[in-house]
Amino acid sequence: MEIVLAIVVGTLYGCGLYLMMRRNLVQLIIGLALISHGANLLIFTAGGLRQGGAPILAEGDAAFAQIPADPLPQALILTAIVISFAVTAFALVLFLRTYQTVGTDDVDQLKETDT
Amino acid sequence: MLWLISICLLAAVAAPFVYRFFPRHTGVLLLPAPLAMVYWLFARLPEVMHGHPVVQRFTWVEGLGLEAAFRLDGLSLLFALLISGIGSLIVIYTQGYFKGHPQQGRFMMYIIAFMASMLGVVLADHLLLVFIFWELTSFTSYLLIGFNHESEAARAAALQAMLVTVLGGLFLLAGLVLTVNATGSWLLSDIIESGAALREHPHYLPILILVCIGAFTKSAQFPFHFWLPNAMQAPTPASAYLHSSTMVKAGVYLLARLHPALSGTSEWTMILTGVGLITFLSGAFLAVGQHVLKRLLAYTTVSALGAMVMLLGVGTEETIKAMTAFVLAHAFYKAALFMVAGGITHETGGETSVDKLAGLRKAMPFTFVFAMLAGLSMGGFPPFFGFVAKESWLHALGHYPLLIVATVAGGAAYVLVGISVGFKPFLGHMPEGLHAHEMPWSMRIGPMVLGGGSLLLAFFCGTIGHALVEPAASAIAGDALHVHLHLWAGFNQYLLISIATLLLGIGCYFVRPVFLKTALRLHPLVKAGPDAVYSLLLKSVLRFAGWQTRLLQTGILRDYIRITVIAVVVLVGAAFYRAGGFHGLEELSPVSVRIALVAVLMILAALVTVSSRSRLRSILSMGVVGYSIALLFSFFGAPDLAMTQLVIETLTVILMALAFYHLPTFKHGSLKRTRAIDAVLSVGVGVAVTLLVIAALHVHTPTPVSDYYLEHSYKEAHGRNVVNVILVDFRALDTLGEITVLTIAALGGYALLKLRPEKGGES
């Protein structure tokens, strides 16, 4: 199973990077979002896949009867999802402003500070 | 010793403030710091004379075995006395030299900071400490040479001096580390005691060469000598102090210090004697063709340093004694002559050329007397201490006729320079338009003490030899020597050689124009020497830096990503190659159909995102990827993640759809070739990341922190959802940071949307 997910992660990274190397600002953002997905899935897969149920203690129990899924990568990814959303949203607004101010969405033309 | 060095450092920090409040008495007020050192050194003299070094150790970093270890033996004492004694005079001299100069406080700060660093070099017993202080002297020297930072020449000279000495310092560090590996101790005192351990170690030759490069760059030995004459851009008090009597001797000090451990091999003798001899002769030869006061003195300093290294290289008891006496004599006369040279230039309104100076004796009688004394000592005339040192030098080289001939030739140059600086400016008729007046008292004290001292030391040379030279020479030799310095050693062959040298030197002085003309003719040759190599190297480094900056920093995003991508692929690939493939693949979980279906869906969606020409289709397929991840999360026991992912993905898609309404369609296509290269690179990264994930599967930390969370989240935090407990309790501060990032992004986004360029006045 892990190898399948590893291939998915690799595909997401490759596609994301390819999009980031295009000349349109919009594609750049989508590429960024794809890489974020890939990174989250990478942490999740590398943290070990355990199909032992969620790390949530049932009502009345004091300890887990069987080892549940690892809570640590989940906590990390939860933070990462939210942060990557913030980054994507901010990039979106920034590019929108850039386009309105500079008048182009061609990344190749945005190479000097005074364009 | 630590305290005394700290007092000097404190004085350095205080200097600008002292100058601010007492601008006319800065030097006098700062004097107690160096004088305290002088006093302490004299108080320890009896112990050290009897062969009991003063040792002080403070624990610094216990776990690293790092100690602030200081040790005062005969050699350290001689150097420390010169540093703090001449330092005291320089501080007073500076007060007069920079009278009314707005930057006097800054200069004082640098010069006293230098003094503290230099004291550290000669007093430290721990090699790391020696190295730190060694680099600090290079650094303060840089500040002092570049003091007049509005002058381009001064800046270039400062940079050159620093690059050469710091580069040498790095070689030295490598040599010191190897030394420590070979002897097992960081303490100089242990290394000196280690006997033949270092000489017989397989790394002996690399150690010797590395240490020598460090010492030779610092002490301006051929072919690194060029920085010293250029360093004459420094204000004269700095030249008199750093670049004649103290800092440039740090290399000589280090070689002398390590003499017991490193010397006695043919390599030592060959390298030191050879380089020293070349430096001694070339310095002397270059000196006679100069006409600028300070450069005359600078080249003879190069030559004198060469002589010291040469005498160390020969390494007999007699040459060690002679070297030690010469260090003392040279420090006295050279510092005095520099102060005189600075005084002459200062009091004549900036005249620097010997040939344009004459007849100053009436205007500057006081200066004349002490310039004469120092000049005669430099030439090695009896009855001056320079003569005493030169006599013991000749005596020590008795079995080396070749070196005696070299000494006569070099000695003649010293006579010429001594007369040129000590007499020439004061005799004859004052040229028209030259105005001069006597130096103020603060500038007279230095030449008076050191010039007068050159004479007095000679009359007390027996005592001086016993009290200062003997302990120092014993420390260099590594066992007790007996030093007997004589002003009158009887009528012997060495006296005759001395007299011949003097006569030759006086003769040379009268044909000096010939030397000047020759120097002028040889100028292109000298210019093509090591100095040119330095400029060429510096230029090539800058050109290379410019070339690779233009190559790597194109300003195009795609190029940056490409470089990063290539680096990632290469590094990950190299790591795989070294690790030799995968391990632990047998523990994989079984493939289930529903997950495989989701995976195929994700790959397809990602490919659609890439290939689509429509913005909406791209965004939607990206959304499919996001929702599929949410599904995967829910399959593998992460309901919280699944929920968060769903909400966030929905938000992202809506936000993008809204924003893209204002953005144009995809209209900038890339060339087919560019697309192909990018595709290859992307596939490369995809493969690298895939391999990375597979390789990461078998990495397990011995005690995962997760177990702790699983066990304690209910017991301690009273929460049943472990992931939530981690976020809001165990790692609550991280979550606070996350919220802060969100807030900043939100504020930034809001500000960007609200910012109206036409109102803000921008573009």
Q: What would you note in describing this structure?
A:
The complex is a heterodimer of chains A (about 120) and B (about 775). Chain A has helices at about 1-20, 25-45, 70-100. Chain A has about 120 residues and is an all-alpha fold. Helix content of chain A is about 65%, strand content about 0%. Chain A has a single domain, classed as Helix Hairpins, CATH 1.10.287.3510. In chain A, α1 (about 1-20) runs antiparallel to α2 and α2 packs antiparallel against α3. Chain A is elongated, with a radius of gyration of 20 Å. The N and C termini of chain A lie far apart (about 50 Å). Chain B is mainly alpha-helical and about 775 residues long. Among the domains of chain B are: about 315-510, no CATH class; about 515-555; about 590-670, no CATH class. Chain B has 32 helices and 2 strands. Chain B has helices spanning about 1-20, 25-30, 30-50, 75-95, 105-125, 125-145, 150-185, 190-195, 205-220, 225-230, 235-245, 250-260, 265-290, 295-315, 315-345, 365-380, 385-395, 400-420, 440-460, 460-475, 495-510, 510-525, 530-550, 555-580, 595-610, 615-635, 640-660, 670-695, 705-715, 720-730, 730-755, 755-760; strands at about 55-60, 65-70. In chain B, strands 1-2 form a two-stranded antiparallel ribbon. In chain B, α6 (about 125-145) runs antiparallel to α7 (about 150-185) and α14 runs antiparallel to α18. Chain B starts with a helix and ends with a helix. The relative contact order of chain B is 0.06. At the A-B interface, α1, α2 and α3 of A face α24, α25, α26, α27 and α28 of B.
